[in-house]
């Protein structure tokens, strides 16, 4: 399965060039429509090359639409169900992408000291559970957002926005 097989052909975004073609944000593990809608909006605003979601039908959800504000029409969306993520990530690596997970692990690098590669697949985890171990075994790097409070995690949409912004800044 190639990215061309996954792109939604009936959308305006298929022909639009993105400012940061080398950044692919993977949100296939996220299942809450408002988080996906907000992430889609962030990706469109910041010019991400593509946003990968688990099921294309989420764009019809009213909660998604309320937050996305039609951004799904302008950011390239790819569909990759969670059970296909492992092979898909390996395909992207073979295409020259570096796989970067946003996760707190013993080997995570602080976001403020990480240098992003131009060709980067950014893997976001599930709400509450994060990135599953079987996918962490496939990534090249893990980054984490420096935190000082008692709560040890941010909302996944907020996390995605911060990390995408750091990529764009670099």
How would you summarize the topology of this molecule?
Elements: H1 3-6, E1 20-26, H2 33-46, E2 48-53, H3 62-68, E3 77-79, H4 85-94, E4 98-102, E5 109-110, E6 120-123, H5 133-136, E7 141-144, H6 156-169
Parallel strand pairs: 1-2, 1-6, 2-3, 4-6, 4-7, 5-7
Description:
- The chain is an alpha/beta fold and 170 residues long.
- The chain has a single domain, classed as Alpha/beta knot.
- It is 31% helix and 18% strand.
- The protein has 6 helices and 7 strands; from the N terminus they run H-E-H-E-H-E-H-E-E-E-H-E-H.
- The protein has helices spanning 3-6, 33-46, 62-68, 85-94, 133-136, 156-169, and strands spanning 20-26, 48-53, 77-79, 98-102, 109-110, 120-123, 141-144.
- The chain has a 7-stranded parallel beta sheet.
- Strand 2 (48-53), helix 3 (62-68) and strand 3 (77-79) form a beta-alpha-beta unit.
- The longest helix is centred in the first third of the chain and has 14 residues, at 33-46.
- It is globular, with a radius of gyration of 15 Å.
- The termini are far apart.
- Residues 4-15 have low confidence and may be disordered.
């Amino acid at each position: 399965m190639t990215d061309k097989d996954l792109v939604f052909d009936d959308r305006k975004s298929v022909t639009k060039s993105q400012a940061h073609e080398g950044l692919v944000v993977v949100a296939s593990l996220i299942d809450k429509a408002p988080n996906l809608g907000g992430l889609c909006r962030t990706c469109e605003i910041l010019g991400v090359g593509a946003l990968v979601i688990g099921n294309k039908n989420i764009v019809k959800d009213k909660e998604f639409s309320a937050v996305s504000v039609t951004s799904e029409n302008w950011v390239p969306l790819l569909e990759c169900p969670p059970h296909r993520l492992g092979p898909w990530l390996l395909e992207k690596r073979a295409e020259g992408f570096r796989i970067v997970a946003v996760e707190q692990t013993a080997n995570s690098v602080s976001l403020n000291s990480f240098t992003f590669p131009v060709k980067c697949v950014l893997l976001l985890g599930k709400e509450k559970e994060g990135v599953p171990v079987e996918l962490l075994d496939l990534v090249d790097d893990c980054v984490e957002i420096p935190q000082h409070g008692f709560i040890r995690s941010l909302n996944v949409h907020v996390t995605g926005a911060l990390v995408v912004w750091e990529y764009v800044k670099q």
